[in-house]
């Protein structure tokens, strides 16, 4: 599987990095490819290191103004001209999407991916890795949107909230298995 992962480039506490390391190890051992923002810092580095250390491949999609921070030893590195092109490339190159903890950029990526899925412009599995309850507030908001009729599809059809890396990988393997 090619798994697109959106996450922070910030250095974070272990309550956020431990689930990422777990997921990265599962990806690498499974022979999967990490498709990610290409950065050599923060949670992006944690993911890339873990996947690579355990035998997986790395496909980075950076952007011109961040190209200097791109990982040098990725299997493939694409430099997009802007953030819009970067998001489109990240979506196109993954069989599924995993959203880890992050700031406004990660939230922007997550909501765009969900908006596209809501409108049927892709039907890839989307997982939010809810490390340390980071996305509990967002889950509550999504449930309210669903209950009050703002979502034309059931929330469960749009996104799966995983509490840890193992739950995220199990959901993805089941979702992408031939039926």
Folded structure, characterized:
The chain is of the alpha/beta class and 179 residues long. Helix content is 46%, strand content 18%. The chain has helices at 14-29, 42-53, 83-93, 104-118, 136-147, 155-158, 165-176; strands spanning 2-6, 33-36, 57-63, 76-80, 96-99, 126-129, 160-162. It has a seven-stranded parallel β-sheet with strand order 4-3-2-1-5-6-7, sandwiched between helices. Helix 4 (104-118) links the parallel strand 5 (96-99) and strand 6 (126-129). The longest helix has 16 residues, at 14-29. The two termini are 16 Å apart. The model has no long low-confidence stretch (mean pLDDT 93).
Q: Helix and strand layout, with pairings?
A:
Elements: E1 2-6, H1 14-29, E2 33-36, H2 42-53, E3 57-63, E4 76-80, H3 83-93, E5 96-99, H4 104-118, E6 126-129, H5 136-147, H6 155-158, E7 160-162, H7 165-176
Parallel strand pairs: 1-2, 1-5, 2-3, 3-4, 5-6, 6-7
Helix pairs in contact: 1-2, 1-7
The overall pLDDT, averaged over residues, is: 93
User: What is the CA-atom radius of gyration, in angstroms?
Assistant: 15 Å
Poorly predicted ranges? none
Number of helices: 7
The helix/strand series, from N terminus to C terminus, equals EHEHEEHEHEHHEH
Distance between the termini: 16 Å
The neighbouring-strand order within the major sheet is 4-3-2-1-5-6-7
What portion of the residues fall into strands of 2 or more residues? Answer: 15-25%
Q: Outline the biggest β-sheet.
A: 7 strands, parallel
Structural class category: alpha/beta
Residues in helix, %: 40-55%
User: Number of DSSP strands?
Assistant: 7
Shape: globular
